[in-house]
From TrEMBL:
This is Aminotransferase class V-fold PLP-dependent enzyme. Belongs to the class-V pyridoxal-phosphate-dependent aminotransferase family. GO terms for biological process: glycine biosynthetic process, by transamination of glyoxylate. It comes from the Bacteria. The modification N6-(pyridoxal phosphate)lysine is found at residue 196. Substrate binds at residue 341. The keyword Transferase applies.
Amino acid sequence: MSDQNPVFIPGPTNIPDRLRRAMQVQTRDHRAPDFVETLAPVLEGVKKVLNTTDGRVVTFPSTGTGGWEAAVSNTLSPGDKVLVARYGMFSHRWIDLCQRHGLDVQIIETAWGAGAPADRFEEALRADTDYRIKAVLVTHNETATGVLSNIASVRAAMQAAGHPALLFVDAVSSLASVPFHMDEWGVDIVVSGSQKGFMLTTGMAILGVSPKALAAMQTARLPRTFFDFRDMMGANAKGGFPYTPPLQLIYGLSESLNMLFEEGLDNVYARHYRLAEGVRRAVDAWGLKLVAQSPDLYSDTVSAIYVPDGFDSNKLTDHAFHAYGVSFGIGLGEMNGRAFRIGHLGSLTDVMVLSGLATIEMAMADLNYPIRLGSGVAAAQEYFRQPARPAAKSAA
């Protein structure tokens, strides 16, 4: 496959040449006195993306999965109860991680294509009069279904129930692509990674941690070594790492933040909406349906699209790869064989998205899908012909 073709998977995303160059650096001493000049601005920059003044930023050489593990192992104890809704592959995997850590997981089964059920969270929390539930875990953007959940409504439900549980949010495929308000939404730990909205290679877990979550560390008894917040924050405060850091990714994240702030975060979010809406116009023109059940749940970073009855979405994505050298997201979990995914986050433009739509249209036509060749591209073209409306400059 030509590396000139963009990928349309929901992460890892396309890496801009500017960031590739930023990561091509020679080895340097991470214990040298001047390393703090590199690290400290990166941690402060991530705070701006998170919209937090009170939270601390912690990074680990890992992925989002490592970030999940860090969140639970630093704040909870064996046997602690957590409340989670399962409505996609990534909420399912977080549940699995918690169970493997010996936590008591109360699961709210939810239809795939729906979002975080704030009303059912409230009901469960009101019933928990002994406050056994220590944390509520929510996947902000469910990558398997293309669903963006309302985190503010979850926090409102927790407040209505008068419950003191911590709120943990997986924002791996949303942060730096759609607005996130850590302080306003009362998020205690947010988990993300380097390989999606930050447009870097995989290898860095990025977390925001509230004062309430930091206080929970004092009584937490789950084991942690590599992912210990205290070790990392202690070393960061002195300008270093408790072990060898992913130096190239730190340089890359520094330059990624520069790119995001130069564009303006509000403009970044407006661009993602525009790209997503172009894809949605194409899906409608094809006569296909999104997995997300309603427009208020539509994700601006990934669209999961049902294939017609009698078709196999895996054959479609395989054909697009082998015939045209372009990758699209496969169906995960309950969506396996039923839906394919178009990732539209990170380093993408209108023109790049049009190339992806044209490619998947050709693949569908090759496999005799009931679509008209060019229909989706034309619908997206009509939308993209409208001038983009620049958003107000972000304060960041």
